[in-house]
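---------- Forwarded message ----------

FYI, see the SDR family NAD(P)-dependent oxidoreductase record below. Original note from H. follows.
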Amino acid sequence: MSLPLENRPLEDRVALVTGASRGIGAALAVELARMGAQLVLIARTQGGLEETDDAIRAVSGRGATLLPLDLHKDAEKQLDLIGPSIMERFGRLDILVHNAAVLNKLTPVAHIDPKDWAQTVGVNLTAAWRLIRTCDPPLRAAEAGRAVFVTTGRVLRPKAYWGMYGATKAGMEHLVQSWAEEVAGTKLRVNLFDPDVVATRLRAQAMPGEDPATLTQPEEVAPAIAALCLPEETRHGQRVLFRQG
């Protein structure tokens, strides 16, 4: 069931979340819906998006707008239209959370496959740039525009075989922090969020022998990201690290 009106601080606000078919993105989408937001969700799989939509309906009584897109293959054709399309349909965009990411293969830098490199750059870095381009105008115009980009501790702690993933996330961080500086005089708040180690598909891909039950769950992380989306949030240009408890 949805919360009472006084407990829905994002009532009538529109939120765009990428990577929303599972893991942190799906958990965050449900949390934002519980807080009253109207969701626009992007992920590669239609089935996964529909599962998230079912969970959103269960807590809010209304569905989300589902956009099955591959942020690498479909980016040039469709991502640039996201901002104008949302404005045409809803008349506003208040929140952007770029959570989608790909790990690809853990491999020595000298052995990175060009196709893997292109895909990882496309999703982790280029898609972030395109989302900023298309969402900047409506977010600046919003009463309390909020943007959050999910990052990784691997940026600060480089490790063998993680070069491709870490480099693309580092590039994303620099891009986002530059944007934050550029909009510092506006009402828009832009932040990075590092969830640390969470039981996600990406983590399982990197550490297949790990017991996910011993890790922080996406539902535990989602409220911390949602807090960065609140109208009263004042943090800006920061790299927020999730701390359990």
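H. also flagged this: The radius of gyration is 17 Å.
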